[in-house]
Amino acid sequence: MKKIIYLLTIAILFASCGTKSEEAKFIPKHAIGVMYVNVKSLSEKSEGLDFKDLKVNSLMEDKAPKELKDFMSEFMTSENINKTFRKEYILGFMTYKRLTGVGGLILPINNAESFEAFIQPMIDKMPRLEKETNVGKDDAFTVYSNRELAIGWNNKTALLIGANNYAGAELKDLTTLDASETVLTTKYFNDFFDKGQDMGVHITSTPLGDAFDGLLSMFAGLDVNLEDNNIAYYGSFEKDHIHTETKLKLNKDIKSLSGYKDWMSTDYNRDMLDVLPKDALLVGKLSINLENLHEHFYDLRDNKTLPMEAREELKKSLKRMDRDFNKEFNMDTKTFAKIFDGSALFALTEGQTVKDSVYSYNYYTDEEEYKIVEKKMPNMFGAIGVKDKAKFDRLFNKIKDLGAPIQEISTNYYEVDRNTFMVISDSFVFFTNHANSADEVKNNGKLATNLSDFEHKDKLSHSIYLYTKGNITNIAQDFTNMYNPYGRNNFYRVDAMDELTEISGKLYEKYFGENHYFIDADGAESFTYTKGDKNSLIQTILYGDEMAKTMSELEDKTEDVKIEDLIEETIIESTKTK
């Protein structure tokens, strides 16, 4: 907890402290991961916040060790940081070299003198550091290093390297990088480095491909090219929302193995919106082309990227699956894939408050205890698109004949085990745990207040979409508990964790509103909307600040409880002894 507070404080001070990053020339082209943070952008967006008013400052004063407090008060001031660092881009990278991982951080500094004054107190406290001067091109770098850590700087740039071994050697290599050996010469970097984003992370498989292509062919028989697979992630704090985006670019071999571009779909049955409630706190949507997914698995039998043994085993497995399907349901897997249209919608509402028992174990009395609590029982609604009703009926009747716990209420209306109701229409199967809603759909074909005019309907055009409103953590937990196989809340409850969940939920609802997440064949995107008159960065910092204070207070309370428990346990043991 205390480490989190320290890191949060340091991050905030850096934010309060660009242009094209000149420091990229220190990133080697064989880097597996590259990241950047736009300090200039974050600094401008945080201008409306007075960092001295944050609660985390008093936490530092109360809980931080004296050495850290002295360092923070003397060196980690906004004035000192502004004097030491340029408000441009912080860069980071990760490589796999000398059979181990190496991580690096690259900081833009104003000059060598100010950075040395800033870093010297830390250097003085680090053991066994070796100092070297006149290192690298133009003999410009000063370097301090041991086996695991190296710090070096010239008059414009500071480098920090972490490694299991040879950290100093890794840093010195960066100071002599030829232009042809930097990340600037790769195919992806210019497209990845987006000045309009506050931060970005890029991961590429190309360096690993150089090392492992031959090993995979030798030991696994895989004739697959591992190079040129790229994932880029971006995050940005906008005026009223936090925006993230993930871009995926895979090479031909990986695309042929996954086949996702063929079976990921965007189509869905719009009639299913009529049976989802308008007041939903969560809405989910999934679209898959089941016929194309089926064909993809069968096409893998002839995909020469896979070794011969794997293809032969796949042929046997698919043949066995078809045989089992025919035996149980009188249809093969291809016929089964044609029954459904591949789309599904799901929703949760808050539901109603009910009384329930929560069980725990008392270690002092060696007995199980319980208490009665009030909680929300969320209402669940879902719909699965059906393309061939006749074949679905045949499949469903066979499932009933096999002894599934399904009780018929009326034609195409059933109760499934554990109070789930199912209504079958010509184009979809509807299910819910809310009996009145099931009756309504059975009698009217839809709910009176439904999602047919969903204000975010345009986002349902994505392959996977998830919408949430407010903090739904407790509702999701209660929904999971509804299907607890033991039929009760028999997990051990920790009062402090319950309190943290409750408080964090309220704080989340104070600062954040709707969330939208969607995934398509080439990546993913999310929008998290914030409340209040400040921009999303400031609101996020304020939320984190209140959460840090809450966690600190609960930590103190937990420590007090532990002391009380220890006293009680001592008294009990003393009594037993007497």
Describe it for me?
- The chain contains 19 helices and 20 strands.
- The chain has helices at residues 2-16, 39-45, 55-63, 66-74, 78-84, 112-125, 167-175, 189-192, 206-219, 252-258, 260-263, 290-299, 308-329, 333-337, 389-401, 435-444, 473-482, 495-511, 536-577; strands spanning 33-38, 89-97, 100-108, 130-135, 141-145, 149-153, 157-163, 199-204, 230-237, 241-249, 282-287, 340-362, 367-386, 406-410, 413-416, 420-424, 428-432, 464-469, 512-520, 523-530.
- It is α+β, with helices and mostly antiparallel strands and 578 residues long.
- It has a 20-stranded antiparallel sheet, sandwiched between helices.
- Residues 1-20, 485-494 and 570-578 have low confidence and may be disordered.
- The longest helix is centred in the C-terminal third of the chain and has 42 residues, at 536-577.
Taking pLDDT < 50 over at least 5 consecutive residues as the criterion, the unreliable ranges are 1-20, 485-494, 570-578
Helical fraction equals 25-40%
Q: Give average pLDDT, whole number.
A: 84
Please state the structural category. Answer: alpha+beta
Give the C-alpha Rg: 30 Å
Given the structure, what is the number of helices?
Answer: 19
Number of strands: 20
Largest β-sheet summary: 20 strands, antiparallel
Q: What proportion strand?
A: 25-35%
Principal-axes shape call:
globular
Amino- and carboxy-terminal Cα gap? 41 Å
Topology:
Blueprint: H1 2-16, E1 33-38, H2 39-45, H3 55-63, H4 66-74, H5 78-84, E2 89-97, E3 100-108, H6 112-125, E4 130-135, E5 141-145, E6 149-153, E7 157-163, H7 167-175, H8 189-192, E8 199-204, H9 206-219, E9 230-237, E10 241-249, H10 252-258, H11 260-263, E11 282-287, H12 290-299, H13 308-329, H14 333-337, E12 340-362, E13 367-386, H15 389-401, E14 406-410, E15 413-416, E16 420-424, E17 428-432, H16 435-444, E18 464-469, H17 473-482, H18 495-511, E19 512-520, E20 523-530, H19 536-577
Antiparallel strand pairs: 1-2, 1-8, 2-3, 3-7, 4-5, 5-6, 6-7, 8-9, 9-10, 10-20, 11-12, 11-18, 12-13, 13-17, 14-15, 15-16, 16-17, 18-19, 19-20
Helix pairs in contact: 1-3, 1-19, 18-19
